Predict the 3D structure of the following.
Amino acid sequence: MNILITGGAGFIGSHVVRLFVNRYPAYKIVNLDKLTYAGNLANLKDLEGKANYEFVKGDITNGDFIMKLFEERKFDGVIHLAAESHVDRSISNPTAFVYTNVTGTVNLLNAARHIWKDYRSKLFYHISTDEVYGSLGREGLFTEQTRYDPHSPYSASKAGSDHFVRAYHDTYELPVVISNCSNNYGSYQFPEKLIPLFINNIKHSKPLPVYGKGENVRDWLWVEDHAAAINVIFHHGRKGQTYNIGGGNEWKNIELVRVICRIMDKKLGRPAGESEKLITFVKDRAGHDLRYAIDATKLKNELGWKPSLQFEEGLEKTIDWYLNNEEWLDNVTSGEYQKYYDEQYLNR
Ligand code: NAD
Ligand code: DAU
């Protein structure tokens, strides 16, 4: 099988590429990535020189380039992760999200539709998010039947891309599958997202900006469990179907931040309570969704997937990874990014 993985130099994509390259030596894996601020080839250093792996630098918003790539490479399957992924950036610059997340997805769908001759042995797998379902109150879970109700420009662009994927299935019979996952955490996540940002800020004794009162709830899943779910769905998911993926692991932001502070105090040999003093309540995120929580029963019952790791263990592993990979962390947080982050923080 020739498989195209888009966004493979990003956080989740790098874990998916690693799993496929290592587990399936007979597959040829092509990783297509534009290498935006969030994409980093250092995330895949261990795969350099592997015979079944190739990196191609390119932009999914360039339709001609995508069509040509499909013509040349004869892909059997696509796992599409490339996206602008950060909600705060979508609030300050929504247009970039429309180009990459909507136009980029449609370019890939067009190429698959026109280049693939026999659809029976092909699959277009689109990776999406639980944010398309909107916000839950204190009760209830998102199921595959939950109505779409996106609030941020990011989730609106992901919802748009999901609709296009379904439309290509319904209109052209393109073989597709979609999964919608909850918040991921783990190694190689860009430190603008809550968990790695706070680990890095604690390390440097910088303020920990908790939005609003920290009452918002997220359902956290270890990234390698997400990659394992993607593997199962790619090989065994039913075409035309949607699968929700989630950890069944809800945390209020403020409680999660306190746990991170406690673990970091221990790891850094600081007195208990030291890191918590860095917590700073700042202006809330505009349109901030209160709660996300996933019902992953369909995936568990149909395909036998379940998360492998307890959250406390995963969080500790994650913190150890960031502390042991200082060079990676310093590289991605230096230069332009640090300027951008400091400006955003000052403007809150
Ligand atoms: P990320 O921001 O870490 O990585 C995105 C990757 O896409 C980067 O390598 C970037 O260079 C690449 N990219 C961006 N624009 C591109 C373009 N125009 N052309 C080619 N490549 C481009 O994102 P992530 O957190 O790994 O998320 C991956 C996917 O999973 C996204 O589709 C996201 O919506 C979805 N998702 C993420 C989470 C999460 O918690 N992070 C949860 C559910 C779903
Ligand atoms: O639910 C899946 C989504 O999870 C993915 O689709 C997105 O790509 C991913 O970025 C993530 O979105 P969130 O907005 O939930 O993640 P983030 O890490 O940005 O924020 C998590 C929570 O923490 C959210 O309630 C906002 C809050 N937060 C975040 C940051 C960066 C803070 O309080 N302070 C912060 O500095």
In short: The pocket of DAU (ligand 2) is lined by residues 85-87, 129-131, 182-183, 193-194, 197, 209-211, 216, 218, 253, 285, 292 (CB under 6 Å).
